[in-house]
Amino acid sequence: MPQVRIIAKNFMDMVAALPAMKLDMLYDNTFICEAVLRSLPPLAKKYVLQFLFIDDPVTAKSMEEWVLVDGFSKHRVAIDRLIQLRVFLEITDRKKEISYKLNPKFQGNLRKYLVHGSVLASLASFLHSFSCNFICSQFAYHSGALPREPMPSNITVRLPTLEELDVYALEQWEDRGVDPADLISFLLELSFHATGQAYNLNTLTDVQIHTLKDLADLGLVKLQQGRKESWFIPTKLATNLSMSLTDSSSRKEGFVVVETNFRLYAYSTSKLHSEILRLFSRVEYQLPNLIVGAITKESLYNAFENGITSEQIISFLQQNAHPRVAERTPSVPENVADQIRLWETDLNRVEITPAHFYDEFPSKVVFEAASDYAREIGGFLWEDSKKMRLVVNADVHAQMREFIRQQK
After folding, report:
1. CA 173: distance to chain centroid?
2. Which of 11, 209, 280, 299 stands the most exposed, by the fewest C-beta atoms within 10 Å?
3. Mind listing the pLDDT tens digit for each residue in 216-260?
4. β-pairing, 98-102 with 88-92?
5. 180 and 225, same structural domain?
6. Is residue 266 part of a domain?
């Protein structure tokens, strides 16, 4: 269903746009780790599996040696997505050489889940697709335990059909502002529930119940009340949020054509498509099966002010390219993509990053050790090696302080 794919794609882009600290907090949840793994391009999934039991950083040059010449573009896409989601941490050493390592929280939870979670079935499938049967044979499948179980049918009586849930979900969905930081954890958890099954509201926290009422308006769940119990029923909009959007079927369902003159044509009858396009383009007229618009500086500024990034817009246009242009490279004209990025930089010429400044190190050895450690944990911002001064991201201040204390 094209609508589900669009929403899921935009949702994972919202995840990638979160600050580093909030992303790391999300990775405390093993279900979220699995959801992010599912959303990755095939090559990125393969890299995660290869890194899963490697604790030391791997240089970018070493990884490039794994890739054939004609596969380098896919390699770059995979690396970029892994870095956006902080699944990979980028480390730069003193020689300016780049290395990558798995986010420790993501890595630790995924390792645990290999033994106890349902991710094994997905991993086995991924590995088989890369002809890694010798690895798949080492895994034993264990079904994962969801946070709650479906309610018995004798209590819920009649539940809506899957078709009725689809209609309800699409009727309720709106393109309105939602704080992604408040919803992401719960939404990704919802994606592991079964469509059409009832789940008791008593299993939720007060915050989740409050959020659930908004999600019902958005069409992600349907709420029902019995004589003694109340329950919610996930729709496909919720249960498919973490699905991978990188398969070939997404190309077949594409509907957007972007021209070099910034004109945009969308061959669709969906009101949802129309509202999504209005987020970043000026819709000029709409026929029963055709939406015609233009990407303008003003329409993009409105999108940027609402928290939509240039990369999210370009990615949406690429993922939903009409079959007539989907096989082109690139599917979105380069001049259009470049201009979208330039207009965004006009609004973001200065980026403010909370940071901590360190100086007066007791020795050169301690300074260099601290600098290397900051790079390793992805918090390094600047250094002056002569005066032994160091600036790191505020997110890692507690770790840095403890590390320096141990060096004295």
Report:
1. 20
2. 209
3. 887 888 999 888 889 999 887 776 654 433 333 333 468 899 999
4. antiparallel
5. yes
6. yes
